[in-house]
Amino acid sequence: MTREVEIVIPPDRKRGIRWSYIIKVVGGILSLFIVSFLLGRPIIGPHRPQFTLQDVTLYNFNLTADPSCLSSVFQATIWLRNPNAWIGLYYDTVGAYATYENQQVTSRTEINSTYERHKSADIWTVLVAGTSVPVAPNIGAALNQDWGNGTVVIMIKLDGQVRWKLGILTRGENHITVLCPAYITFGPNSTGISVGNNVIKYQLFHNCEVNLSK
């Protein structure tokens, strides 16, 4: 007479423990990342957006003396890119204007709110203008000197608010400031190209300085 013996193989408790540990670690990392994102202090990124001033078209640039007043019209073409692999960008209430020696010399032009997907690029074309804008006497003197030397550096400035989007999560706002130097040349050594009656276009392709703050 034979007796059947049932052999019971005990479960691999170590394997179960290992998987449980892995799941807890991954869950903890994801939770920490999400919390950090919501608190505005992400562990991985987000990286700052990238801006390049491609060109500036000059329609008017006239300085009068006593008192010193500047009239100017610029059209700027700006290339921007979101370098983040997973995070999108909302641009809210962003405006553009021109400055010279830290003094604003045009009015502010508002740019429509827009969303930029991760790893995507866009082009903004903005027109900024100022009519008989008073400038300080020392600013007028410096501008006259730079004009006489053949190069005036006008700063095309953007500022506003941005928000970060990860999946269905949107983080609070950051203030963004973008500084794009435009080298406007005059005289026989000018690098500008005439594109119309007294309209000069400057091909620049200068990288812009980007700053983010709370």
Q: Your description of this structure?
A:
It is found in: Membrane. One of its GO terms (biological process) is defense response to other organism. InterPro entries: LEA_2, NDR1-like. One of its GO terms (cellular component) is plasma membrane. It is built from 2 helices and 13 strands; from the N terminus they run αβββββββαββββββ. It has 214 residues and is of the alpha+beta class. It has 2 domains: 30 residues; 169 residues, Immunoglobulin-like, CATH 2.60.40. The strands form 2 sheets. Strands 3, 4, 5, 6, 8, 9, 10 and 13 form an 8-stranded antiparallel sheet that branches. The termini are far apart.
Looking at this protein, list some descriptive labels.
five-stranded antiparallel β-sheet; alpha+beta; single chain; eight-stranded antiparallel β-sheet; elongated; Immunoglobulin-like; 214 residues
Secondary structure: elements and pairs:
Elements (H helix, E strand, L loop, with lengths): L12 H26 L11 E15 L4 E14 L4 E14 L2 E2 L4 E3 L2 E3 L3 E15 L2 H13 L1 E16 L2 E2 L3 E12 L7 E4 L2 E9 L1 E5 L1
Antiparallel strand pairs: 1-2, 1-12, 2-7, 3-4, 3-5, 3-6, 3-8, 8-9, 8-10, 10-13, 11-12
What fold name stands as the CATH topology of the largest domain? Immunoglobulin-like
Instruction: Outline the low-pLDDT stretches.
Output: none
The portion of residues assigned to helices is 10-25%
* Average residue pLDDT: 87
